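3.2 Worked example (two chains)
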Amino acid sequence: MEPEATENVAPLTCARCGTTADGTPPTWTCSVENGTRRYFCDACSRANIRSIEGRLDSSWW
């Protein structure tokens, strides 16, 4: 087994509302803003889909 597969992974936290999840849920959105990866839960992603599709940074929404 590869070492990366056995490491403890910290839970992801939504950059907007603070919701946490174990692993990487397939319904969450990943955005790279100013060179930093940010994750948004499905509820925040749905509520702001137009801004996300318009490629606006999360600080705008």
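3.2.1 Second chain
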Amino acid sequence: MRILLRVRPGASRTAVGGRYDGPSGPALVVAVAARAVEGQATKAVLAAVAAEFGVRRSAVRLVRGATSRDKLVEVEGEEKDIQERLERLLA
């Protein structure tokens, strides 16, 4: 399942949750402590998303947005479970 993300690098702590209504539609907000330098924030985002959705890190793949705050990721797993968790996190 593909999920739009809005990344907030340099946060005081890592957190997944909240909604950002951007130009591509509603996106899940992911705040990470890592800075947006040399892909550190992107790596932290993928790890945080994997942990939040209860999947292995290798089950989360970046589709678009390696150098952008707006990212599209693909999460492999039980689509029904992922959709339910996503709806809770966006609320």
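3.3 Remarks
The mean pLDDT is 96.
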